[in-house]
Specification:
Largest sheet: 6 strands, parallel
Number of strands: 8
Strand order of the largest sheet: 2-1-3-4-8-7
Strand content: 5-15%
Number of helices: 13
Distance between the termini: 55 Å
Order of helices and strands: HHHHEHHEHEHEEEHEHEHHH
Radius of gyration: 21 Å
Shape: globular
């Protein structure tokens, strides 16, 4: 169990020692083309490319792909982090203060940098047979937004509105938008990695350079799907990226109750899968790891397991312990029957907030200043408020809607209506 007196992230970050690449005298960092060429050559010759999670990026530009990102792309990533944050906060406020609100969520606040950094490295636009695919968990809203779904329609879907992204049939744990490569959330713990590996197999069989990504929590370690997925994707060298969002708790139990490893990546490494361990609060570190994994997968180098050390600001489900207008949950959660997160641990992690870290990096790099960063946040807050206003004005589903989409054609006879 993590000690509240010694926040987990302090120890975790000490193990990463990830350093940015030095700049050349001309202000430009060295090119990473040689690195990408090496990965392709290594994949073609069957060489082993070691990218274990504990390695330190100490010299050159090894792995620091973020240096190649344009200012526009970096600002877009910052905006995505804010979109996720303010969606979560707004929805939590609706659950706490609006008695007519029917939606719910397993909130993603605190983990925004993981979804944003990974999806920023993917191909998100184009025909379905060319874009990369993302499979989500039962904590899907952050992944969906980062992949580019229509936010107002997602908000409507989560409140069971007929004009929602999936017609009100999916709600939170089954949202899906294949048009942007977001295949969907998964209400069950475990199956998503296996399904994602099926897409990776299809890409490999077709000779496509597409990549499949699956997001899963630390609780997935104890499911057999975790192990079979890693075993089979390595045997076949499939283009799968497994992103383990280790937020320390599956539901209310610390992950050490079910996993003997301090780093879950150690279990993935046992199958010969390339592994990375990153600070999941830093979108740049996440992007660097994801970009390297994507390049490897496209070059035929096989799967990668990324363990992002992160933390969720709300409890497992809904908003118990939270207060409207405030970020995070600190009070009693009646569902926490076996253990409970120490409040000091929550507050310690919140000192390393993904929003703050992203903003400080971009200001330090001269991409934007504090004034523009604040303006962007206000723009995003207004965007999300408008999305909720539109969604909550949409018509609700009717009982008769439940009779549709059962068969390929037609509806189910309404016997239960007499």
């Amino acid at each position: 169990m993590a000690d509240a007196a010694e926040p987990f992230w302090e120890e975790a970050i000490m193990t990463y020692d990830l350093k940015p690449s030095p700049q050349t005298s001309g202000g430009e960092a060295p090119s990473s083309e040689s690195r990408r060429g090496f990965l392709k050559l290594a994949a073609l010759t069957g060489a082993v490319v070691s990218t274990t999670g504990s390695r330190a990026l100490a010299t050159g530009d090894i792995g620091f792909f973020a240096k190649d990102l344009s200012d526009e792309k970096l600002i877009d990533m910052y905006r995505t982090i804010l979109q996720i944050r303010w969606h979560e906060r707004t929805q939590a406020d609706q659950m706490l203060s609006n008695p007519d609100y029917r939606g719910y969520n397993h909130f993603y606040a605190g983990q925004e940098a993981v979804a944003t950094g990974v999806c920023a490295a993917l191909r998100n636009d184009g025909p379905f047979d060319q874009i990369d695919l993302v499979y989500s968990s039962h904590r899907p809203s952050g992944h969906a937004i980062a992949k580019g779904v229509d936010i107002p329609k997602m908000v409507a879907e989560m409140d069971f509105r007929a004009t929602g992204m999936n017609g009100g049939y999916g709600a939170e744990m089954h949202i899906s938008d294949p048009s942007v490569g977001f295949i969907g959330a998964d209400g069950m713990i475990g199956p998503a990695p296996v399904i994602a590996s099926g897409s990776a197999f299809a890409f490999s069989a077709r000779g496509s350079d597409q990549v499949a990504v699956v997001f899963a929590g630390d609780g997935n370690y104890a499911a057999p799907h975790f192990h079979s997925t890693l075993n089979n994707t390595k045997l076949l060298d499939l283009p799968l990226i497994y992103v383990c969002e280790n937020n320390l708790y599956h539901q209310y139990a610390h992950y050490s109750y079910s996993c003997p490893h301090k780093d879950i990546a150690d279990a993935a490494g046992a199958y010969g899968v390339e592994t990375e361990i990153v600070d999941g609060q830093d979108v740049i570190q996440v992007y660097n790891a994801a970009k390297e994994a994507v390049d490897r997968a496209r070059a035929g180098g096989g799967p990668t397991f990324i363990e992002a050390k992160t933390y969720r600001y709300y409890n497992h489900w809904g908003a118990p312990g939270a207060k409207a207008g405030e970020l995070g949950a600190f009070g009693y959660d009646p569902l926490a029957i076996n253990s409970f997160r120490p409040e000091r641990e929550v507050r310690a992690w919140m000192q390393r907030d993904p929003v703050d870290i992203a903003r400080k990096i971009l200001v330090d790099w001269g991409v934007l200043d504090d004034t523009r960063a604040a303006e962007i946040e206000e723009e995003v807050k207004a965007e999300i408020a408008e999305a909720f206003e539109w969604a909550l004005s949409q018509p609700l589903c009717t009982p008769e809607d439940g009779l549709e989409h059962v068969f390929a054609e037609g509806t189910v006879p309404a016997r239960q209506f007499g």
